[in-house]
Amino acid sequence: MLIHDSQQFDENSVKFPVYESASMQNDPDNFHIGMDNGSPVVTTAVTHPTAEKVYWVLLDENHDEVCRYDAIVSKSRNIEVNLPHAFAKKIQLQQWKLQVYAYEN
Question: What's the whole-model pTM score?
Answer without folding.
Answer: 0.66
